[in-house]
Specification:
This protein is mainly alpha-helical. It has a domain of 30 residues. Helices cover 67% and strands 9% of the residues. It is built from three helices and four strands; from the N terminus they run E-E-H-E-H-E-H. A two-stranded antiparallel sheet has the order 1-2. The protein has a two-stranded antiparallel ribbon with strand order 3-4. Helix 1 runs antiparallel to helix 3. The longest helix has 48 residues. It is rod-shaped. It starts with a strand and ends with a helix.
Length: 133
């Protein structure tokens, strides 16, 4: 056993520290994975909505101005001749759906608290064991 900064470094202590580092890496990786999946799903939904809007807008018929009106407007306004009237649907902002299962989030919170409690109990046990030596 080596003494490091007044502390005895045991095999159990080293395994404990390595375990904490591995668990922290797994939790961080899991958080990034879930966040990226959520963003990808939101992006897919936005693309689907945009494609549907483009499809709907392309189906709108373009109605030319009747020849009688265009010649009458052409006499007073030379720029108005040949214009067409189009009806565009008004776009309404829709709220994107929430993604990610809520059950898994609750399970994740429970697992995090359990791991925290377990690591604290291991730490206390390790401290007691070093004081008894």
């Amino acid at each position: 056993m080596a003494i490091f900064g007044g502390w005895r470094v045991t095999r159990v202590g080293v395994l404990f520290i390595v375990g904490i580092i591995v668990l922290a890496g797994l939790v961080t990786g899991g958080i990034f994975l879930v966040k990226n999946r959520g963003e990808a799903v939101r992006r897919e939904e936005a693309v689907k909505v945009a494609e549907q809007n483009l499809e709907d807008q392309s189906k709108v018929a373009v109605q030319p101005v009747p020849a009688e009106e265009s010649t009458a407007q052409g006499a007073t306004d030379p720029d108005a001749a040949g214009e067409t009237v189009t009806s565009t649907p008004t776009a309404t902002a829709e709220e994107l759906p929430q993604t990610g299962p809520a059950e898994l989030q609750a399970i994740g919170n429970i697992v995090i608290v359990a791991l925290l409690a377990l690591s604290v109990s291991f730490y206390v046990t390790s401290r007691r064991a070093t004081q008894d030596l």
